[in-house]
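Notes on consecutive records. When two proteins share a document, each keeps its own sequence and its own token line. Never mix them. Below: protein one.
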Amino acid sequence: MMSKKIILAGNPNVGKSTVFNALTGLKQHTGNWSGKTVELASGSFSFGENTYEIYDLPGTYSVISNSPEERIARDYVCFSDSDLTVVVADATCLERNLNLVLQIIEMTDKVMLCVNLIDEAETNGIYVDTEKLSELLGIPVTGICAKRRRDILKLKSAIAKASEKTHNFAVKTVYPSEIESAVSEMSEYIQGCDKTLSAHLCRFIAVKLLDNRELSEDLIHKYINDSKSRKYISDKAENIKSALAETGIPAVCIRDEIVESIIHLASSVSEKCVIKNDERSRDRSRKIDKYLTSKVFGIPIILLFLGGILWLTICGANYPSKLLSSAFTMFGTLLHQWLAKTELPPFWCNMLIDGVYGTTAWVTAVMLPPMAIFFPLFTLLEDFGILPRIAFNLDRCFKRANSCGKQALTMCMGLGCNAVGVAGCRIISAPGERFAAILTNTFMPCNGRFGMLTTLSAIFIGGCFSGAMSSAVSAGFVLLLIIIGSFVTLTLTYILTRFVFKSKSGTFALELPPYRKPQLIKILTRSLLDRTVLILGRAISVAAPAGAVIWLMSNLNINGSSILSICTSFLNPFGLLMGLDGAILLAFILALPANEIVLPIILMCYLSSTQMVDCSSVSVLSNILTDNGWTTLTAVNVMLFSLLHFPCATTLKTIKAETGSIKLTLIAFVLPTICGIFTCIVSNFIYKFFMIF
């Protein structure tokens, strides 16, 4: 039995991850935007007597430019010594996908094409002649629907056959005469320096020497062993580029000519093998996009979508939260009775139950129901194709902020978890824009903050109304907070990219995929397992030790006062300046490991309790807060500070990993904190000013 290495490449949104999952049985997911999964996913399958190791490259539209995901895809195809590169294409937009196919054909003679979504193409009146396409490209071509088991078996068989041999390509990208002559001259020179290299590889190296200096140097070091030959080849390339410049083709124009030739060839091949029924291919997407991507209606409609999700989350989370809270309370009582029968000292027993278990139970009861509602609904928008439209609509706003619409996608990820949003900033190729997006992602309220925001909004904002209006107003206020966070993000992004990182506004290619019928089972699996359970587990892992620390602070005394009350008194003057109090500030500081425990720490301070307080009843919680001096202003300032304060420990750790800079991590902590403090002080001052008059 032999093991063969197979690379899976393709544009974003062509079903590449679906093909990968179907081949390997692993559950990986890549969203509808370029580069969401920058790390390499891998798996394997067996067919016949061989085992095939599959490596799923990041989705990319090109291997010519230098964004992180494009460099990963390009270098892996060039240097990984694979047995076969399978390029997955979308049958509904084959011409655009062929650009990448032709680029990869230039890079390797071990390639095959998998045309996916054949069923969707037929629905839209599009027919792809795969035999003709194979004849034109000179490589194996297989048309499939990745959701059909028989098609996956057909693809496995095709991979097995294609990996056994290389191919004599019938197609070759022909460049303008001057560049073509230069490529031929350079290719012959390289082959003269090293006769072991194939003509195909020599031509590819020649093209890259004229087009991409960074990659060409890597290629020379990879394939040319003799240092003198390397220097001769580099010097020859510079001489040829100088000669091209004298004919009116400077170095900066060579890539444009190469790209234009590839696009022209892709169009020519597509015209010969794709048949379209014009009547049937009038996609409903255009009619919906007329409104969803409209300058007038686009953003308001998307805000309505988000407001509806928040409303459903607020309405639906209360009852299961109460059930979970009651269940955890009952189990905690039983666990306490069981520990009491052991020889464990009462001090440790109480710390484990009232500190570790109590905090963990609170976080689970508060976080799980909203996440179990929010993430499936949010994933539904993603599956349906709404998220790319959000980026499209917001691109104009971010352009004015000296950034691009990719940042809108990272902000959407931040609504689930800021750490995920920070990691998602890898899709932004310009370093200045990427750092600005990382530093400002925390202004999107993550799921850990949604529990407190929705609860306080329901008590102090929605509480002024009755019936269904109460939930609608509560959801509307949370939506307003998200809009405020977006405004702060845009403002600081402009300041950071213009004056700190001094980055020019970048561009990005965004595909608006057709609207597809969501797959409910996959949505539930992906949102509940890949997101809800993952984030909940992460929160619990930091909340449990935090609970122990908080319990110790409330139970260890100095001169008759607990450490918790001493810290509260110390912070109280500054808290009052912000329209808060010392207990609230201390709660935010102690909740650095997990935002979910801010509210229970506040209650512990108010009630002078030695354990985390469980208030499953909104009315009881409202009475406790109002009895301790809370007003609508206090609640609003708490929500504003929750929106604008420092990131949690998990997010800070992710920022350090993504930037590799302690300095930027400290800025990520200080910058939002200053914004939060300043906003609360201004809010408190304005309120008192109007109260005087």
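Protein two starts on the next line and is unrelated to protein one.
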Amino acid sequence: MYHKLTRMLAPRIGLYFAVMLAFCCVTALLGRLEAAVAELVVTAALLAGYLADRLRRQKEAAKYLKDILDSMDQATRDSTLNCPLPLVMFRPDTDEVVWSNDRFLRLTGDQEGMFDTRLSDLAPAFDTRWLLEGKDECPQEVELNGRRYRVFGDLARPAAGSEESVLATTYWLDVTELADTRDIYHATRPALALLLLDNYEDAIKSLDEGVRSAMLSDISQRMSHWVEESGGVFLRLDRDRFLFLFEEQYLAGFKAEKFSLLDSVREVVGPAGIPATMSIGVGVDGDTFEELYRFANLSVEMALSRGGDQAVVKNRFTFEFFGGRGKETERRTKVKSRVMASAMGELVADASCVMVMGHKAPDMDAVGAAVGVCAIARMKGVPHYIVRDSVSTPADGLYERVAGLPQYEGVFLDSQEAMLRADSRSLLVVVDTNRPEQVQNQELLASCNKVAVIDHHRRAATYIEGAALNFHEPYASSACELVAELIAYLMEPTDLLPGEAQAMMAGLMLDTKNFTMRTGGRTFEAAAMLRRAGGDTGEVRRLFQTDLADAVSKYSIIQTAKLYRQDIAIAAVDRTVGRVTAAQAADELLNIAGISASFVLYPDADGRVIVSARSIGSTNVQVIVEALGGGGNAAAAGAQIPGRTVDEVKRELNAVLDSYFGSDKGENEES
């Protein structure tokens, strides 16, 4: 290294000596020998002087570098020995302590036998994997003897071929006071909750004054008992609305008990047997009280849109959901449907064209609802289109039947054609989903200025925001039911084509399992209107027929089902099956006596694990599937999980079920 550096620093004058030798040769060739000899002597003298000076420079440079390196080694040793921070050197592969300074000895309190122990014995909470991952700071604070430390460090790797192992050096910075102050700050930050008796009109308002007062008093006592330990401020804002201001440190306890107030209030039952239910919206992590109140308001709206009887916590990033086990009750009024119909009619009439889009892999409910929206647009004289991409879907049979109608020639477009036709006045109607990541084409959704949403699924943490019209009713059986209510106010049943009525009837029958699940009075009113318009249930039944191969596949899925917790059927198959077949298998499992919920898991061609969940009774499969990254409603839900195997998803599902039903472990699986 020394010679290389001195060569770099030395002047390059070899060319000059070469030129001087050339002059000597030229002089000799010209016959001037005395002059040539004189020149050669002078050149030799200069070369000798140059070489002597170069050797002297090399020695000086070598001595200078050696002095610098020696001083650096000494400085390194001095800084290590006199480091103001606790310091420990150890071998990550064996956990053997090599050396530490006195400050580290004092903080561990183990000055005897320090070099005969392992670092994990001195600091059990200290994980060294971050060093091996190339990081220079421990991602978590380390607690040691009642103090908290931030740990920094690096690795010294041995030279290639050396038998020595990797040596780690770590520096421990005491941040106890700072961390305690930070924890106090976070613990004492305000949190704001809004509590709403969400079925006040149904369960309490119509009662006699004495009974109503007794029930409200009982509920108030339960709420007061729930909030008293937090020392917060609890106020009644309205007859059925309350405000609760408390410190954030108590929120973890509320979450751990899964907001037990929900169950406590549900124990208050009116004379008609209707239990009181409550929705709780909590806002946290806001910069101001105004922002906290806005978060709490959004949380209450989210809870109500998911069926009520649950708690929702919102911070500045996301929502958390608790409860939601109560059975949904219909809370719709025809007033809202009439208002929505009027608004929908105006939006369609003002649009240059109407485009309708459902969720990915549209089913008959999505297609039937899209057809109903097109009927409204046709009645208004507005060009209308249905987005249909060239991929196989569970509703291909219905697509082909509708495409055969003369009025639907040229109505079906793929996503790219739809984007080319869209302009500033186009209206995009999204049916049968309210989640932006679940629509057929997110680019089309983002490119349209006016969007209307018609959906019956319970709202998830993500939803389409800023819609010009949001007809979202989680108590409806299907999107076709909602569109049928709009049609009832905007056009006569005779204006609906029989083919359109049958398409909507197919969606209605699909989501109600032939009118056996999630049906209400409004469901049968919608079915009656579609029947008058030409919707023949016998003809619609043909759309639900499957071939022999699909039937065999469905029952082979059912054969793999195993019981979990005695009343839950889980069928996990290791082969790709059709989505319709898997959904039918999940439905069929509910026909077995004693089964309250069913889950079918299978891999698809894209490497994802598909989950199809169904429920009958009080089990809310939406809450369960949401923990896996999916969604849906209380009786039917699903998920698409990438990057995991069927067995991994099954184990995760079992853990979610254990958490949903309580801390007690589930029963062993049975054949």
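For the record: The chain has five domains: 2-80, 87-183, 193-323, 335-544, 548-661.
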